[in-house]
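Figure S4 source data
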Amino acid sequence: MAVRVPAGFQALPLPIAQLSLAAVLKCGQSFRWSIFPLQISGNTPLQHVDPTHEYRLCLRDRVVCLRQSPDTLFYRSLFPTGVLGDQEQREAETLAWIRDYFQLDIDLVNLYRQWSATDPVFNRIQDRFEGIRMLRQDPFENLISFICSSNNNISRITKMVGSLCRTYSPALLHLAPPAGSDLVEEPYHPFPSPSSLAAPEVSAQLRALGFGYRADFIQKTAAMLVEAHGVNRSPKTSSEPSEEWLMTLRDKDTAAARTELLNFMGVGRKVADCVLLMSLDKREVIPVDTHVQQIATKYYGFRGPTKTGTMSPKLYEEVSSKLTAVWGDYAGWAHSVLFTSDLKSFASYGLASPSTPSTPSTPGLTPDRHSASSQDTAGIATPRDSMPKSGKRKRGGSNRSLETKTREAEIEETLVQLEAVVEDAISEGTVDLSLADRVKRRRRGTLSTR
């Protein structure tokens, strides 16, 4: 198939089986990518498949723009006006960043092949959910983002991270959406530094922005880093000492790195494991929550508590060990594929479009990049055709319609989110515990009537 390179972009041969931007940048690993639909020409030759979206991320010194066709990744970098430098060297730097950020030295197709050979569950979903790999993010951004993730969903985390950047990091440059130069330019902000979040007044400012109890965690974690490591930036990397120290955790073993992370405010086992997996090269680590426990129970024979509730350290370790035994050294990567397949916004991902049966659809990407579903948390409604069929019928489930099950899942998710909102309100002192109790009783009563 011929490759038509968009104006201003460079081309990197890369099949979607190795990297699917439509999945990786929407599945809850990173929360700062801006996603824009592209206008597709009506007279595109049959031998061409033009990209459908552009993805943008603001780094410290540039904005990286990506597009993708079935077999090619297109990239370019944009800089503030007046910045001098050799264009060829800049593109080489951007390509090096892309290779590192997406960990392209790891053969994902080979990993899928290994997991499919040993795991019938993975074997059934591999074709629909191809190209899902772990990002190698900046550790500080990753740490703060997942402190924001506590009792939260992808849409709300994205808004919080955006607020952090706009409030505590000056805009690097302004760009119009790719659909046309006549559209309004938007500012692009790098992720803020530890020192910009460490001041005592940050807590109150973040509470005013709707961060709830997470506000104190963010400010205190940033303050701990700054107090321990200082603020003098490295002339070579423009990084603060605490950011460089976090990078050194990549060289520590998993247990030692986890111990360091658990010292920070708002960092429990799950948040620590997310950071270990997504930015510190600990590829075997599986972040566990009740949704991952449900996956382990439903599809991998895990025998644990049937009622959802607090994830005890013992239960966490048992689930993690169970799934690591299935997937091996890259268990965290395999977990990400199963996790993504379980997201409600990916319920029709990879299925044929009704209008064009031979063309895979890309759900989860909406025309408005700001309208991510509020239900983009890991649910338990994995598409039925993506999992192995069992000869046993689940009690009480055979006579209920798919519509009924979907509605029940939506009700449960809404109640979970309401609980989180009430918890935030309690932390702000704007609601009493009696309301929280009523919400929880309502949820238990709804679940018990199924």
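Figure S5 source data
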Amino acid sequence: MSQTPAASLQDIVGHAKEYGFVFPSSEIYDGLQAVYDYGQNGVELKNNLKAAWWKAMTQLHDNIVGIDAAIFMHPLTWKASGHVDGFNDPMIDNKDSKKRYRADQLLEGKAEQYEAEGQPEKAQALLAEMGRLLSAEDLNGVRELIIAENIKCPVSGTTNWTEVRQFNLMFSTQVGSVAEESNLIYLRPETAQGIFVNFLNVQKSGRMKVPFGIAQIGKAFRNEIVARQFTFRMREFEQMEMQFFIRPGTEMEWYEKWKEARMKFHKAIGLPAEKLKFHDHEKLAHYANAAVDIEFQFPFGFREMEGIHSRTDFDLRNHQELSKKKQQYFDSDLDENGKPYGNYIPYVLETSVGADRLFLAAFCNAYTVETVGEGEAQKERTYLKLHPALAPFKAAVLPLVKKDGLAEKAEGIANALKSSFRTVYDDGAAIGKRYTRQDLIGTPFCIAVDYQTMEDDTVTIRHRDSMEQERVAISELKEKIGYQVAIERILEAI
């Protein structure tokens, strides 16, 4: 048995559509760029990932609770957060191809090229210079750096670039029944602000003591000018964020703790260590004093999957100033001098992972093509090597044939298991083809019902990854499979 080279993004996209994981949105109308729908299997995988994240945050930590804030928020929220004035991407156009690119991504691509050529020092120097220019808002300097590095448009092959300009990424809309009376509001570009404006509501109603966290899963919207790479960068996406409120001065300690905790989570759901790495930010966001990405090796290279940021007291302080409502916490714990810490605006440590990017990482990592058999019997086998707790279906029950009572027996087994975990019954085509169907959607266990089942109430369990089979009593199925497909297996590994 041997594994073939890594799959291309085209392979991933094709498999995702063919087997009900991800479809282009509004495809009958030729689709909408950078918008996707999750199919019947995709929504199950995504929901399982969200459930694992939610439980890892709220179930494993006594001091983290969840909320679900509205998408629409008062427009001053985005003034206080800095998004109205500073939520921009530096864009540059090629005059010959008429294509638009993010200037920072062009430079990052050049740095990746240097890395691949064995010139890491040159790559780091380029990223450092880019960070300096962007921090200084020197857009002309960014353009000159692109030209100096001889970065060409992938379409035209020329360096005929326009000036670099900033584009705000927020979608705006109107609220109100009459246009003249309406007010401008925004679709939220992040879920974090819904947590910040509810900081005191949660703290007081839950009698929470610092340090404590608030978790949320929700949709966010960004008018990405350059949206690409399947579900990696979309205009409508889902975030899983946790804001951890801490005493000022302790942020670096918590920063390191959450870096370690989040990396553990990604390994626990089955992402291999060699495909994960930390990447410190060259240019810090306006709210941060430290920031790092957890990157995953997608088919198009290492890219950000999760961000961990020390946001200081930027958000709560700005909301306090603009709303004129105090966002302070009274800390009765004693300092080194034996006095209460008293009132302060908490600092915040943020973990923010894209549910869609996590889905794509899990899917890319799971997609497996290997050669099985020998000689003339050799053939390729494709399957999704998903963690059993994440698979859309946990088990498939397959009668060997549809006659002699085997089908009825198998249906009875499937119905008995459905209350414990997602189970499918399938009696169409030869059993080998049915095994293949389940492999292609990542079902970890196939239960074959044969003539021996009718005699001794045992069945054969086929394991997806190894294709090994074992004989098990029907009475043991619920416990045996249920143990291996439970989210608890992920939580235990964190």
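The mean pLDDT is 92. The chain has three domains: 2-84+169-363, 88-167, 387-492.
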